[in-house]
Amino acid sequence: MSHEIENKTKRRRPSALPGITSLALVMFMLGLLSVSYLGFQGLSKSLVESSSLDIYFKDSCTEPAVNALDQKLKQEKWFKSSRFVSREAGMKEMAETQDPAFMQYVELNALPLSLELYFKAEFATANQLERVAAELRSLDIVESVIYQKNLLESVNDNVTKIQLSILGLTLVFVIIAIGLIHNSTRLNIFSNRFIIKSMQLVGATHGFIIRPIMGKFILYAIIAFPISLILLAATLKGIQYIWSGFGSIAEFTAFIDPVKAAICMASTAVCGILIAAGSAWFSTRKYLRSKIENLY
């Protein structure tokens, strides 16, 4: 008989699986949000810094004049690097991309001298590029200035959209986790209603009753953390195959700094524990103020 009562009691115990699963998903989404921020910021910086502002000089311009301008530009705070393209180098690069029949009609002297400028990422804003381009166009030796005006805006817009999408999913999972913890707390209190009622009758404080329940959900968060890390590692690995057709975007994980990623993971674990503890605390206090018998 005692075994039957014990078995029934075990069956009435609320399952830990919903709480652990929801917390694992929350920490997974928080981790994905943080590492994707690091990765896409690094990718954005790499794309911006690899995009050049190209200066084409007039036919009358000489190489010493171009070198003098290059030395002057190196003093600017936005300057990262530059690459001088001579007429010979320009002819060679054109031959690699153009049809040989077309190249028969191209004369060496017809190609202008050019200079490729690369900006530091923190200064590569649309306004900064436009200002520098306007200053260069005003020089007598400059024929034209060309740069990818929409690249920076496109990169930033796409990164922002991805971040907002992940943030939205994270908020949804946080709400779901809080709801599941809320329900798990209610079930936990109801399954132990006689013990809790006895504790209240002998003068136990709410804090004394809440602490073990909080400890249980903190344990759930600790168990959920390695699960979230496994999910995150599998996702980052899978991105390289799923997004293989998107070029450099598929390699955004290469731009994640390991030290910063470790800090993000530690912060994610702390956030998961705080969410679990806070939800358990407020839910338990709410139900302890009500009649336990009326929870169902």
What average pLDDT do the residues reach?
77
- What would you report as the Rg, rounded to the nearest angstrom? 31 Å
Low-confidence stretches: 1-11
N to C succession of SSEs: HHEHEHHEHEHHHH
Shape: rod-shaped
End-to-end Cα distance: 27 Å
Largest sheet strand order: 2-3-1-4
Secondary structure: helix percent: 55-70%
What percentage of the residues does DSSP assign to strands (E)? 5-15%
Q: How many alpha or pi helices?
A: 10
Structural class: alpha+beta
What is the β-strand count? 4
The biggest beta sheet is recorded as:
4 strands, antiparallel
When the domains are counted, the total is 2
Describe the structure.
The protein is an alpha+beta fold. It folds into two domains: 2-46 and 153-294, no CATH class; 52-147, Alpha-Beta Plaits. It is built from ten helices and four strands; from the N terminus they run ααβαβααβαβαααα. It has helices at residues 2-12, 17-49, 63-73, 87-97, 100-103, 126-137, 149-191, 193-201, 206-242, 258-289; strands spanning 52-57, 79-85, 114-119, 142-147. The protein has a four-stranded antiparallel β-sheet with strand order 2-3-1-4. The longest helix is centred in the middle third of the chain and has 43 residues, at 149-191. The chain is rod-shaped, with a radius of gyration of 31 Å. Residues 1-11 have low confidence and may be disordered.
A few lines on this structure:
The protein is of the alpha+beta class and 296 residues long.
